[in-house]
Prior knowledge:
Strand content: 15-25%
Structural class: alpha+beta
Keywords: DNA-binding, Membrane, Transcription, Transcription regulation, Transmembrane, Transmembrane helix
Pfam family, one: GyrI-like
Distance between the termini: 32 Å
Number of strands: 11
Domain HTH araC/xylS-type: 9-107
Number of domains: 2
Shape: globular
Transmembrane segments: 226-243
Mean pLDDT: 89
Order of helices and strands: EHHHHHHHEEHEEHEEEEHEE
Organism: Clostridium saccharobutylicum DSM 13864
Amino acid sequence: MIIKKSLINKSIEYILQHIDEDISIEDVTNHCNFSKYYFSRMFKEETGSSIYSFIKRVKMDQSVVSLKVEKDKTITEIGVDYGYSSSNYSSAFSKQYSICPVEFRKTMNSTEVANPFYPNEYNTFKSFEHYDAKIIIQDLGNFKVIYERYIGNYNEIGSNWYSFMERYKTYIKLDTLLIEKSYDDPSITQLDKCICDLCITVDEHVELENVTMIKGGKFAVYQFDGSIYDIFVTFLGIFNIWLPRSGYKRDKRYVLGIYRNIDRKNNHVTMDLCIPIK
């Protein structure tokens, strides 16, 4: 599903940037200068979710990512970070994921993970040393981009890229970068609810309604060279294995995938997997 209304994208961006705050429906509608009733109806028509359900889902999903990487925090502390009391967090967590947070955290010691895109397949993580040897800490600059925001299964990214690039082919040059800006971990978030922006870099003079600036900053950059089918487990390995032992903290921004070379015939890509850190 492409989110076509710029106002809805503005509200989603606001929610994602303030997800660890006590954000309300009124905060979102006031930010967009619309009445609560009218904007709530428009939001649901465009996204398929109410504003309240969207905020609740993203808060819980992001708290699970924190459970993975913030090993120095207790489960209670993480629940409180996202607006839950201790008992409410455990109950809400168990209801959404059919496992309690204590048991979930124990699974983080595993060296393999079920692949959500291929349910019968398990992927094994590499060692900390493997990821550490291929990661460079970089300060990335800002990127001015044309973007389209999708809510849906990451498996559909390939076909979405084809149609996106066809629509904006007149803006594509030799030095244009293709960038994926993603917010969700598909091993946590329901596959049909994952948020991803497809972006192409453009010159400063380009002005369209769907032009935005991807803000740079400090990232752990893993130089990936392999099959597109291995991108998911590599991202997850960085989060599950490397980040908790790296000495860095996750910065609650978006993850970037910057393509350097694409061999569509052989499903092979060279790209930078960029994890925001602080």
